[in-house]
């Protein structure tokens, strides 16, 4: 089975800072590195390192061939990444000593994808394949519609959150993953535009019911993650205890490993635990894509928790 990921490709400029600067403050950094990033690329690499077959669909400027090479070297099929005249997307990431981060994002080529060419890639699908997308590229609605026509399952990472696009895509989705802030924004959007959410303590279940989702995952950082499935199936995944170095990309790592496990036929309980273990390993390392562990790393980490 293959995941066709319509996803962003970014260059991350990462600065280590003692604290986040106040308005008007000039702050000397403790370190700098330039790396591959973007939610889409991160999730493609997480899927590949978790053992899935993944084709990344996106765009980047040919001057930045090194980032395409990095994605390919992680085990991702990059033949559908389009050369773009638009500058490659990039992010300015500040990572504080606490491990928390702040990000400024320039979309660039991620918003200039040729959707006719992108959708044509889906013609290579086979039974059981999935598509994946986030909110960092153009063409989401057309891509989901084309995937639906071809009978593909649809996974959606509703980040950065936008109410209009999320409400338009969710009726066609099988898997939704959001963090706590995005979940709260979604509940408000649904309440304002559709059927009001009448029980704030069980709003995830109502989202599942209203949109017919098979799987909803809400990541909660240091508080773990919650799974809500159909028929009121709920799982509270507690976090693994680790020394946090950098939280950048941890959610993308979680999502990739979760989807890989679901595609492999694992139970939701196993998928949540594997995804949580992979994300725990991720945050003990600096960076985003380059910090994503392999499936073997994840298995060894989980085994060590039992000793």
State mean pLDDT (0 to 100 scale): 93
CATH superfamily: Ribokinase
Q: Which sheet architecture does the biggest sheet show?
A: 9 strands, mixed
Rg (CA only): 18 Å
The first-to-last residue Cα distance is: 34 Å
Helix percent reads 25-40%
Q: Key features?
A:
UDP-N-acetylmuramoyl-L-alanine:D-glutamate ligase; single chain; four-stranded mixed beta sheet; 13 strands; 307 residues; alpha/beta
Can you put this structure into words, describing what you see?
The chain is α/β, with parallel strands linked by helices and 307 residues long. It has a single domain (2-10, 37-91, 108-305), classed as UDP-N-acetylmuramoyl-L-alanine:D-glutamate ligase, CATH 3.40.1190.20. The chain is built from 10 helices and 13 strands. A 9-stranded mixed sheet has the order 5-4-1-8-9-10-11-12-13, sandwiched between helices. Strands 3-2-6-7 form a 4-stranded mixed sheet. A hairpin with a 3-residue loop joins strand 12 and strand 13 (233-237). Helix 1 (39-49) packs across helix 8, helix 5 (163-169) packs across helix 6 and helix 8 packs antiparallel against helix 9 (268-282). The longest helix has 15 residues, at 268-282. 47% of the residues are buried.
């Amino acid at each position: 089975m293959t995941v066709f990921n319509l996803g962003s490709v970014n260059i991350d400029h990462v600065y280590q800072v003692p604290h986040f600067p106040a308005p008007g403050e000039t702050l000397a950094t403790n370190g700098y590195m330039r790396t591959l990033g973007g939610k889409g690329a991160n999730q493609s690499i997480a899927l590949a390192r978790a053992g899935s077959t993944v084709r990344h669909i996106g765009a980047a400027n040919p001057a930045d061939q090194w980032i395409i090479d990095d994605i390919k070297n992680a085990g991702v099929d990059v033949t559908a990444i389009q050369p773009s005249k638009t500058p490659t997307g990039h992010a300015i990431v500040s990572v504080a000593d606490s491990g928390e981060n702040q990000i400024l994002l320039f979309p660039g080529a991620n918003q200039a994808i040729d959707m006719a060419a992108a959708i044509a890639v889906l013609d290579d699908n086979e039974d059981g394949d999935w598509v994946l997308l986030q909110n960092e590229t153009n063409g989401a609605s057309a891509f989901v519609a084309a995937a639906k026509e071809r009978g593909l399952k649809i996974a959606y990472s509703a980040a950065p959150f936008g109410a209009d696009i999320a409400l338009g895509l969710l009726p066609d989705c099988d898997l939704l993953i959001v963090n706590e802030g995005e979940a709260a924004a979604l509940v408000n959007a649904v309440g304002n535009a559709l059927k009001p959410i009448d029980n704030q303590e069980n709003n995830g279940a109502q989202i599942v019911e209203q949109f017919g989702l098979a799987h909803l995952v809400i990541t909660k950082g240091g508080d773990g993650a919650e799974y809500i499935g159909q028929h009121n199936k709920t799982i509270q995944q507690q976090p693994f205890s680790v020394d946090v170095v950098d939280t950048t990309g941890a959610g993308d790592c979680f999502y990739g490993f979760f989807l890989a496990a679901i595609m492999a036929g694992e139970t939701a309980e196993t998928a949540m635990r594997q995804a949580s273990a992979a994300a725990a390993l991720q945050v003990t390392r600096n960076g985003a894509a380059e910090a994503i562990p392999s499936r073997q790393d994840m298995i060894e980490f989980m085994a060590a928790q039992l000793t």
